[in-house]
Amino acid sequence: MKRRDFLKSTTALMGGTVLYGLATPAFAATPVSGGTLIWGHSETTQNLDMHQTGTASTGRVLQNVHDSIVTVDKDLNVIPNLAESFEQSADGLVYTFKLRPDVTFHNGKKMTSADVKFSFERCKDPATGAVNFEVFNAVESIETPDDLTVVITLGSVNAPFLSRLAENGAGVIMPEGSGDVQGTTPIGCGPFKFVRREFGNEVELERFDEYWGGPAYLDKVIAREITEPTVRLTGLRTGELHMINDIPADRIAEIEGDPDLQVVSWFPLNWDFVNFNHDFEPFKNPKVREAFDYMIDKEALLEGALWGQGAVTASPSYPTSASYNHDLKQRPQDFDKAKALLAEAGYGEGELSVVFKATTNYPYHIEAAQIMLEWFRMAGVNATIEQLTWSDWLSQCWVDKDFQITMMNFFTLWEPDFLYYSLWNTEGAFNYRKISNPMVDELTAKARVTVDPQARADIYKQVQTIIHDETLDVILWFRNGTIGAQPSVMGLDTIVHPNGSNLNFHRVWLQG
């Protein structure tokens, strides 16, 4: 299939369901225990504290170490997990969780309500630096009437409270008093326990035989951090690696045609956008931000950087979400319009200079930035690129907010409050662009106290309109997810979490 034909076919999925494909051996097999699976992880892990980490790359590993109090099913409905049941009061202010009695942490301690109270209060405490702290802003009290009961009382309605607890960030339960060690030696109650991490090289996990959901099949999972796509693919072909995620976009068709390898593909894995630092003087002017949007041909960029492995979108909402705003359309590439907007903002041709910081952690970001820089120059902007390691990007762009223009992708943000409050509210934990829009702040706060699902969805559609009209960021595309694996890797139909990002090795096994 030609790249542009593929693009058209994936774009058609935007109004439908998630794409998920798996090529597996034709025969059925009985799972067996044992063996170490070597996973070629496309990214590097950072802080291992599940409350503090903001990177999907780390969460993808820790998904196997921790469990949350509730989770979601394949349709993203909230269901019990560490809590065997939960109830919400009629006024929406009191949540009662009944915990499973058979949950054991990796340190041998039985989980009780005291651990839940500790975990939630730790996440809420500003001193912790938790990225999901605002989930607990409305919490007035956490009571533990007995070892298996937790009662949480809110001061005001927080409609997305349960769904925000369904992710292994806010909802993860840690042993009481374990906060000091979580960043280096995480302790959870998931199917695998943490053994070691060689920073920038690999993470080793070992089966936890006391897992409440039944022990995993694999003895161990070793996540080798290999950000260079060609090296990762070579490791799969030579048998050094059992599986890899993120097959290089230009090699997917080749791997799909190889009878000696398996391929899992799904849509979407993540979405990408171009970011402006709203404290950088030129980008304080919405006309300048809009001008940059007119410089970008989104379909051409998708094909040039991703070989068409995804679908362009004007909205970052999960494509099957009720909050997805189908009325938004991306601006077309128009250099004359871009130059006119820059002139209106006081920047003549050659008078504006920008530095584009992109991370080598995502090689396709480097390719995309190089393509965009040519377009920026064609519009009369002096543009240069600065390539950063993942650690440097996180330090400079995420933490210090020291950039002018950059590009990033986000995973797992299927829940609209997590998406829009975290990224675009002035106080949002993921607002590294220094965006402060009073209307967005008002609407994202209003959505939290709006119980009716359709009314909430309509509010988020308004938020998307503001993001687009004010060009707070430039939304580019959804990207497909892919896994390549040896024929011996079984259970791949269970590995992708419903959020499209996390990988769960609980039911994966090695044949022979």
Describe the overall structure.
With 512 residues, this protein is an alpha+beta fold. It has 3 domains: 31-47 and 190-261 and 486-510, 3-Layer(aba) Sandwich (D-Maltodextrin-Binding Protein, domain 2), CATH 3.40.190; 66-181, Alpha-Beta Complex (Dipeptide-binding Protein, domain 1), CATH 3.90.76; 268-479, Dipeptide-binding Protein, domain 3 (Roll). Helix content is 27%, strand content 24%. The chain has 14 helices and 20 strands. The chain has helices at 3-11, 56-62, 113-124, 161-165, 229-238, 252-256, 286-294, 298-306, 335-344, 363-378, 390-399, 416-424, 438-448, 453-469; strands at 19-22, 36-41, 70-72, 78-80, 83-88, 94-99, 139-146, 149-154, 192-198, 202-207, 220-225, 243-245, 262-276, 310-312, 352-359, 381-388, 405-411, 473-485, 489-490, 509-510. The strands form 4 sheets. Strands 1, 2, 9, 10, 11, 12, 13, 14, 15, 16, 17 and 18 form a 12-stranded mixed sheet that branches. A hairpin with a 3-residue loop joins strand 9 (192-198) and strand 10. It is globular, with a radius of gyration of 23 Å. It starts with a helix and ends with a strand. The model is unreliable at 1-20 and 22-27 (pLDDT under 50).
Question: What labels would you give this structure?
Answer:
512 residues, 3 domains, twelve-stranded mixed β-sheet, four-stranded antiparallel β-sheet, 14 helices, 24% strand, disordered N terminus
